[in-house]
Design brief:
- It holds the Pfam family Peptidase_S8.
- This is Peptidase S8/S53 domain-containing protein.
- Keywords: Hydrolase, Membrane, Protease, Serine protease, Transmembrane, Transmembrane helix.
- Belongs to the peptidase S8 family.
- A seven-stranded parallel sheet has the order 8-9-7-10-11-12-13, with helices on both faces. A four-stranded antiparallel sheet has the order 4-5-3-6, sandwiched between helices. A two-stranded parallel sheet has the order 1-2.
- By secondary structure, it is an alpha/beta fold.
- Helix 18 packs across helix 24.
- The protein is elongated, with a radius of gyration of 31 Å.
- Strand 10, helix 21 and strand 11 (about 655-660) form a beta-alpha-beta unit.
- It contains 24 helices and 15 strands.
- The protein has helices at about 25-60, 65-90, 95-115, 125-145, 145-155, 165-185, 190-210, 210-215, 220-240, 250-255, 260-275, 280-295, 315-340, 350-370, 400-430, 450-460, 495-500, 500-510, 560-565, 595-605, 645-650, 735-750, 760-770, 800-805, and strands at about 185, 370-375, 380-385, 435-440, 445, 465-470, 515-520, 540-545, 580-585, 625-630, 655-660, 680-685, 710-715, 720, 725-730.
- It has two domains: about 25-375, no CATH class; about 495-805, 3-Layer(aba) Sandwich (Rossmann fold).
């Protein structure tokens, strides 16, 4: 950086208000201990609060709303008491100023942290609350400190906003923002606007906390100002950072803001040497731009351990945080060396302006070229009050002919109801350029919009409720696809033998031919040797509403594994000669109500690539049984009844929906995420090799008191297909579910008259199931009720079920 010649001597810097400040050793030691304690309590509280949120999410439990208000209260009490003592007891004005600054920061942190009681799914509401609270705190604290700040600054000449110190603060803030612009992605328009306003409000608040009166206490010399004042300011900024963002989004700020205290101290030293007063403007710019990155370019919903297993959002946020932290340290050291040296010249305004302009241009260019330009906010799912009347549909002939007739009538009624009831609302949403996408399986419309649009839609008489339909933000680089590394089994896998499927093949000669299984998941590797021959083919057997791919593929591997357990060959699938069709409803392990609807709707009436589900659906091509190893929790936008009309319509059409109970055991009542709790869904839990209920398998009773799961199947260490031609071992109710779907395929292959007869099929499965055990050391089992809420009817028995189906 170019340093201009020293200017002629100007007016001297204002002296400290109370004269020389030379505290004894013990107050300094006390201040150091209080500072260390403040850092420890603050960081520990933020990490623990986020960890509790993630633990509740992984366990499938309701979000603990009081967690963050309790963290806020605990932090204020634990930090406030020693900092209050530091602000009142020592004689040293500098140490008292330190105590006052840290106490104010603790109170600010308490107020901002309590805002996280707002659910993360309502990010716009949280950002609006953050903006308002930070602005209010700035006004209140600014009013309380106005006189002291005025006496410290003195009469400020004009041009402070255009001073080189301000321009250097803008340059440093832009440098901090650059990694986020390149690696992150923005949300919706309103979300981005509110993130900018929140960052600006936090910047203003930082300027109030680190006002001229604060810096005046450390103005005995440049070295002391930077080293001591910068350290004290860093703790203040740590407290502010801990409240700057929803749960997870504040963690990057804990790394980024504290080093900026030294940079601000160096800017203060440079201004004092030049005889220029420096107000709160540099702090506003530097802190505001510093927090804008994590607030605007990262969705807190996506900073979750659910996405931490691959190079997904948590990985890229960590990379952006590391890069921005390195920038913050370089800025702190560089400004300290260049601006606070005893013989350093005054920074050149022209050079500072050029550097700031260049870095702001780099941010814009980085966002547009290597970044992910555009808006990628969540959408809304508008559920209409009127749903199609599916009563009185004739049963028709037994078997597939009757099933096809019922499916056609269900499709006709659903489409007619949606067309009639959605027409006006679709026109209005189109006129407002909100890009509506209609659905018929659930009479609903997905649309753009934030809280204002949601409130407007919720007030309409034809609307029952409005859900948030989550959408993941794009990544700077696609994670490498999953690959299987294990070889194929030498014979039937252990789980295949445990349920007797291999005996069905060898003794009964039934392998699932003539039956089609629909798999909705992360996708299917259509080229896998265990699955390639089973793909039904045609132009209506694959649908990818995320990436609109034309042929079966799978990046994550979960869908290939589950499809393999249902219909895979090489000894891994229950019904190896059944055919399959596929749909992608999970993107990077997360979905949304709309994407789940996309696939369920496709399974009722498949349509060709690029076709219109409303006019091009082919119910006669619907698969017979669906395997669904997924659930839609509140974090994805679903409520308890979100998909209820959809599964009811599929049941009315004679399509059997098999769904995973979930992996949120051992807690009672954990069969909660749609569609597992629904009565017309066959819900599957998991057992191990010893036929004992796994600890992770979700338990009933389901919502409303219904007994769930219906059945259990092997779900611990199940070997199945994985992308790339290899195999992998996974555990979960996801692995158990396709085995039950495969047993249904065997039953319907053995007796085609059972196709579409969901009641008799379910009865046979339950009556032929074998007992399942519960571990004696299972901590929750005694409180969950009887076996019906733990293992349902028992372990599915393919051999007995197929024999009963054939006899029927």
């Amino acid at each position: 950086m170019e340093i201009g010649p020293r200017p002629p001597a100007g007016p001297p810097a204002p002296p400290p208000a109370t004269g020389p400040d030379r505290p004894g050793p013990w107050p300094v030691v006390a201040a150091a201990l209080v500072g260390g304690w403040t850092v420890l309590v603050t960081v520990l509280g933020q990490v623990v609060g986020w960890a509790v949120d993630q633990a509740m999410l992984v366990a499938g439990l309701d979000r603990a709303v009081p967690v963050w208000p309790l963290v806020a209260l605990g932090t204020v009490l634990l930090v406030g008491a020693p900092t209050l003592a530091l602000a009142l007891l020592p004689r040293s004005p500098a140490i008292r100023a330190t105590g006052r600054a840290w106490l104010a920061g603790a109170l600010v942190l308490g107020a901002l942290t309590a805002l996280r009681a707002v659910p993360p799914v309502h990010q716009e509401a949280y950002l609006a609350a953050l903006t308002g609270t930070a602005a209010l705190l700035a006004v209140v604290l600014g009013g309380l400190r106005a006189r002291r700040a005025a006496s410290a600054i003195g009469a400020a000449p004009g041009g402070v906003r255009r001073a080189p110190e301000t321009l250097l603060a803008v340059a440093a803030g832009a440098a901090l923002l650059l990694p986020w612009a390149v690696l992150g992605a923005l949300g919706g328009a309103l979300e981005t606007l509110l993130a900018g306003l929140a960052a600006a409000a936090l910047g203003v608040l930082a300027g109030v906390l680190l006002d001229a009166a604060f810096w005046a206490r450390f103005d005995a010399g440049p070295a002391r100002l930077v080293l001591v004042g910068g350290l004290v300011a860093g703790v203040v900024l740590l407290l502010l950072a801990a409240g700057a963002g929803h749960s997870g989004a504040q963690l990057p700020a804990l790394f980024l803001l504290p080093p900026l205290g030294f940079a601000l101290a160096a800017l203060r030293a440079a201004a004092a040497r030049a005889g220029r007063p420096v107000g709160p403007v540099p702090a506003r710019w530097l802190v505001g731009l510093g927090v804008l990155g994590p607030l605007a370019f990262a969705d807190p919903d996506e900073l979750t351990v659910l996405l931490a297993t691959t190079r997904d959002v948590p990985f890229w946020v960590a990379v952006a945080t590391g890069a921005a932290f390195a920038v913050a340290v370089l800025v702190a050291v560089g400004y300290g060396v260049l601006l606070a040296r005893p013989r350093a010249g005054a920074p050149s305004r022209r050079v500072a302006a050029v550097v700031a302009t260049a870095l702001l241009a780099a941010v814009a260019l980085g966002y547009v070229v290597p970044g992910q330009p555009g808006l990628h906010g969540d959408r809304l799912l508008v559920v209409l009050r009127e749903q199609a009347d599916l009563t009185g549909i004739p049963a028709g002939a037994p078997g597939r002919a009757g099933r096809d007739a019922r499916a056609a009538e269900v499709y006709r009624r659903l489409v007619a109801t949606a067309d009639r009831t959605q027409a006006q609302l679709r026109r209005e949403l189109t006129r407002l350029r909100l890009h509506p996408t209609p659905y018929y399986l659930l009479n609903a419309i997905e649309t753009d919009g934030g809280p204002a649009v949601r409130a407007w839609l919720s007030g309409r008489p034809e609307v029952a409720r409005v859900l948030v339909s989550q959408r993941l933000r794009p990544l700077p680089a696609v994670a490498p696809p999953a690959r299987g590394t294990l070889p194929a089994p030498s014979g039937p896998a252990w789980n295949i033998s445990l349920i007797g499927a291999d005996r069905v093949w060898s003794e009964l000669g039934v392998t699932g031919s003539g039956v089609v299984v629909g798999a909705s998941d992360s996708g299917v590797d259509g080229g896998h040797p265990a699955l390639a021959a089973g793909f039904r083919g045609g132009d209506d057997s694959w649908y990818d509403p995320w990436a609109h791919t034309r042929t079966p593929n799978d990046q994550g591997g979960h869908g290939t594994h589950t499809a393999g357990s249902a219909v895979g060959r090489e000894g891994i699938g229950v019904a190896p000669d059944a055919r399959w069709v596929g749909c992608v409803n999970l993107d990077r392990n997360l979905g949304s109500p709309a994407r789940y609807l996309d696939c369920l709707q496709f399974m009722l009436a498949p349509f060709p690539f690029g076709g219109d589900p409303f006019t091009d659906g082919r119910p006669a091509r619907a698969p017979d049984v669906l395997t669904n190893s997924w659930g839609c929790p509140p974090i994805e936008g679903c409520d308890a009844g979100a998909l209820r009309p959809a599964t009811a319509a599929l049941a009315a059409a004679g399509i059997l929906v098999v769904a995973a109970a979930g992996n949120t055991g051992p807690y009672c009542g954990s069969v909660a995420d749609p569609p597992a709790p629904y009565p017309d869904v066959l819900t599957v839990g998991a057992v191990d090799r010893a036929r004992q209920l796994t600890r992770f398998s979700s338990r009933g009773p389901a919502t409303g008191g219904a007994a769930k799961p219906d059945l259990v199947a092997p779900g611990a260490d199940v070997l199945s297909a994985f992308p790339g031609g290899g195999y992998a071992t996974l555990a979960g109710t996801s692995m158990a579910t396709p085995q039950v779907a495969g047993v249904v395929a065997l039953m319907w292959s053995a007796n085609p008259a059972l196709v579409g007869d969901l009641e008799r099929t379910g009865r046979i499965l339950r009556e032929t199931a074998t007992p399942a055990g519960v571990r004696p050391d299972d901590p929750e089992a005694p409180r969950c009720g009887g076996d019906a809420d733990l293992v349902g009817a028992g372990v599915v028995d393919a051999y007995a079920a197929v024999r009963a189906a054939r006899a029927g």
